[in-house]
Automatic annotation (TrEMBL):
Its EC number is 2.1.1.33. Catalyzes the formation of N(7)-methylguanine at position 46 (m7G46) in tRNA. It comes from Petrotoga miotherma DSM 10691. This is tRNA (guanine-N(7)-)-methyltransferase. Pathway: tRNA modification; N(7)-methylguanine-tRNA biosynthesis. The keyword tRNA processing applies.
């Protein structure tokens, strides 16, 4: 009820006004952790709708309890990587503010690819924020704030205010308390969007369940697909395993695929029909129908056709 089942949505971007039942402006918090800020903001100002995005299942469970206890109807949660969620679930010019508090800095250069703020994420912000909308970042690490500032300036769509030292957030978060106890400083960076920009999404267009029909299956080729790997510029496909129904009428192919750094794991069915075989994404696969997922179904069908 407080968490949007983003894999069950019929078309993207999500129509947030239908989910909330009003067209109030949207404020998104990325990595809300304990949810202290999001819940307090929602309690104190119900002229906005609030959306929290987290990769931690535990954080999502915890905040849902708080939303329920406080009877809030202006907060929704998404369990997903924010880099994917912001780009795929929000239309151009649809978010008033994106708030990020104390993101993990991934200080070692070999881990830099894990940092939230990369070129693509900032490009996503340049599309999904309203014109004059803001990205508000608080961090305890000055070099991190400087690095993010430079990335916003390089993007060219943002006016970036000087990094300032602050005393405290409007509502203290768990990490704010933690760093305060260690005597660390807090830095605020605000980037304001100043242009109109639209970006291409992975989940645009055709929304059919990916499927292919073939006449005959070469079972040796099917079995030898385990370990198959195919990579192109934006996509990677890896076949991990194959499970067979005892009577040989159905095969489940376990796949990992990646679109522009976004990884999914799911099953593809190879099913005996009255005539021929059907290769299709498993109904309960819980995979977004991205270009890599469509290519997986297409590739398996081509590889195993006799
Ligand atoms: C250091 S904690 C800060 C939590 C909270 N903002 C606070 O101030 O207490 C960073 C949080 O970001 C979440 N996170 C990390 N990468 C994320 C991503 N790509 N998308 C969404 N959440 C993410 C983590 O699960 C974690 O809860």
């Amino acid at each position: 009820m407080y968490q949007v089942n983003t894999k069950e949505i019929k078309s993207y971007p999500i129509e947030w006004n239908k989910i909330f039942g009003n067209s109030n402006k949207l404020i998104v918090e990325v990595g809300f952790g304990g949810g202290e800020l999001l819940v307090n903001l929602a309690q104190h100002n119900n002229n906005y709708n609030y959306i929290g995005i987290e990769t931690s299942l535990t954080s999502c469970h915890k905040i849902k309890k708080k939303i329920f206890q406080n009877n809030l109807n202006n907060v929704q949660i998404i369990l997903e990587d924010a880099k994917f969620a912001l780009r795929e679930f929000f239309s151009d010019n649809s978010i008033n503010k994106v708030i990020v508090n104390f993101p993990c800095p991934w200080p070692k250069s070999k881990h830099a690819k894990n940092r939230l703020f990369d070129e693509k994420f900032i490009d996503t912000l340049s599309s999904v924020l309203e014109v004059d909308g803001e990205l508000i970042l608080t961090t305890d690490i000055f070099w991190y704030a400087s690095d993010v500032k430079e990335k916003f300036l390089n993007n060219g769509c943002f006016e970036v205010k000087n990094i300032s030292e602050i005393n405290q957030l409007p509502f203290k978060t768990r990490y704010e308390k933690k760093w305060e106890n260690e005597g660390r400083k807090k830095y605020l960076l605000i980037a304001q969007k100043r242009c109109e920009k639209s970006i291409k999404r992975l989940l645009e267009g055709d929304f059919d369940l990916p499927h292919e029909k073939i006449k005959n299956v070469n079972f040796d080729k099917l079995q030898s697909l385990v370990g198959f790997k195919k990579s192109s510029k934006n996509k990677t496909i890896v076949i991990k395993d194959i499970y067979t129904k005892l009577d040989g009428s159905k095969y489940l192919v376990k796949v990992f695929s990646e679109d522009e750094g976004y990884i999914q794991s799911y099953f593809v069915n190879v099913i005996k029909m009255k005539e021929g075989w059907l290769v299709k994404l498993d109904d309960i696969a819980k995979a977004y129908r991205t270009p890599a997922v469509k290519e997986v179904v297409n590739t398996i069908a081509k590889e195993i056709e006799n």
